[in-house]
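Supplementary Methods S3. Complex input for the flavin-adenine dinucleotide-bound model.
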Amino acid sequence: MPPEMSSPPPGASQAEAPPRSPLPPSCDVLVVGAGPSGSACAQWLARAGVDVVLIDQHDFPRDKVCGDGLIPDSHAALQRLGVYAEVAAVAQRVSHVACIGPRGGRVDVPGSLSVLPRRQLDDILCRAAVNAGARRFTPVRFEAPLRDGGRVVGARVRQGGDAVHDIRSTWLVLATGAVPKALLAAGMCERQQPTGVALRGYVKNDAMAGRITAMEIVWHQRLRPGYGWIFPCRDGVFNIGVGLAHSHRKLRDGRRVMQDVNLREVFAAFCDAYAPARELMAGGTLQGELKGAPLRCSLEGARYSEPGLLVTGEAAGSTYAFTGEGIGKAMETGLLAAEALVAGRRQQSGDAAVQSAYDASLRALKPRFDLYERANRVNEHPWLADLLIWRARRNPAIVRRMSGVLDETRNPGSLVTLRGLTKLFLPVR
Ligand SMILES: Cc1cc2nc3c(=O)[nH]c(=O)nc-3n(C[C@H](O)[C@H](O)[C@H](O)COP(=O)(O)OP(=O)(O)OC[C@H]3O[C@@H](n4cnc5c(N)ncnc54)[C@H](O)[C@@H]3O)c2cc1C
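Predicted complex, serialized as structure tokens:
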């Protein structure tokens, strides 16, 4: 057996699949996708007394390719959802993000952070939705929306590999993540190609457990336009990976094509260029395989709503460009979808009012996403990271600014705009 197949990924269990329950013919809200966004949405709706059905194409617990890093916005959403203590009890608590530049300079930015494999995190979130009253059915795959006139009135789904069923619902919520298949089937996809791509693996290396204690993010010429990371999980396990921003180039005719980059080669370059990554891999055991996945960022690439249908989470592009963080914003946007639906029910408002409330709530977040898009230039020009780190090491106020970006009290764009860079050379209070 090759070493990468020698043990299951962290959090894996051998539980037998429960017998399948018959699917209901109807519900108030059908939420498709039980990731952070869908589970948050379903829990909030169920708490408000809405009859909600939550489906996912996979049985839970299931793996999700991710860096597993929880930053302050995730912690805030977990608090709102009442699962923060449960997550904190099993997550690896982390006190700093370490930003490491191409020349090896490093600055440790403090923050409220933790790392928990998505297999465990998503299971907690999904169970919380069920405990609040959502009816969960898995594995059930969304195939297409049902329409009556111009309005969406439910979905055609497939249970396991079996026959299709129709579930009628007053509203359908698509929280199907970065793979655009469901968006395409619903006619909501505006851009099929992802914004970025990333690859990660789990490696167990007990000897490194006390040595890598921060969430390390590494910029380097050989990782352009992207970065590498090492995030410590529990029990000597690390999530290690590489991400590539703007993985798909726009051609003159508007089409997008994948840049000529092989993520496995970028991963090898990361291990070659960054000594701790090299050491981690050389002395550790890979658990499971290296796996890649797309990212959809900057609240772009899909329509947010149409009558009877809301799109939320990464399906709506809710992941931050530059950092690739999206768990917190997936939950936030899921909650925004639920809030728009609950308010619409209370006020007995029509489709247009629900849509415009939801669309407006996402548009209100957009400027912040745009700043992350601008900050993406660090991934394209890693020397900017060198500059920032060099200055931050000499000026604690800059570290405080960076910490403010992490907990969202400051904008990331301000650090890498021309004005922001100029300010780096001015005395900072
Ligand atoms: C390699 C990598 C590293 C990352 N690292 C981080 C990180 O460290 N921190 C962070 O905050 N973010 C990170 N992200 C981003 C994060 O993974 C996403 O932002 C987040 O998962 C989005 O949540 P979601 O609920 O919208 O979608 P998902 O988590 O993708 O959930 C979507 C769900 O929908 C289900 N589904 C899809 N299609 C169908 C269908 N047709 N029928 C039924 N079910 C369906 C899927 O099975 C899945 O369970 C990373 C992403 C990648 C790829």
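Confidence is low (pLDDT under 50) at residues 1-7. The CA atoms of residues 341 and 397 lie 42 Å apart.
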